[in-house]
Amino acid sequence: MQPIVDLRGRLALGFPASHAAIFLLAILAFVLAGPLRAVGEDAHLVVETASGPVDFTVELALTPQEQARGLMFRNTLAERHGMLFDFGRPREVTMWMKNTLIPLDMLFIRADGTIHRIAEQTQPLSLDTIASNGDVKAVFEIAGGSASALGIKAGDIVRHPIFPAR
Which of 21, 81, 117, 134 gives the lowest tally of CB atoms within 10 Å of its CB? Predict the structure, then answer.
């Protein structure tokens, strides 16, 4: 193990040894505090369907890095769990299934929370793009076949803090 203080009493990074404690405490505080929202942190989402509300536990994909990874490399997705991709402002969105091992249903959601379109049973590992076919703010990915099984259709309303209350 290499010492962090050299023979002249300075940290390897050039700080005086007397500042070592402050430096180490700052690093410790940063590590313990963690990000404001942990990657993969669970949230709650409700889809209002014709037959009633359907509750989901969701992971949020907010940063470009989280969105690029999405649900890649997962072997399963629990029932009524999914990933919500928030793109911020409404725009045409394309998705793909690169390195995604399970079929998914992709719910393309407008800025007001209305489901614009659903791409059902997307093909695992496919590099084909899946377009929103219109401006959307978010995409909610759930296990393939879940939208049909739960009665979720285009026009249903998604309730989550990223969408305005109606």
Answer: 21
- The correct answer on CATH 2.60.120.1140 for the domain covering 42-159 is yes
Can you read off the two tokens belonging to residue 113? 């929370």
Burial of 12 (0-12, 13-18, 19+ CB in 10 A): exposed
Q: What is the DSSP letter of 124?
A: T
* Separation of alpha carbons 9 and 18, rounded Å: 8
Which pTM was predicted?
0.76
pLDDT tens by residue, 58-86: 999 999 999 999 999 999 999 999 999 99
- Which amino acid is present at 82? G
DSSP string, 74-101: -S---TTEEEEEEEEEEEEEEE--TT--
Asked whether 162 and 84 are in contact (CB, 8 A), the reply is yes
The residue type at 139:
V
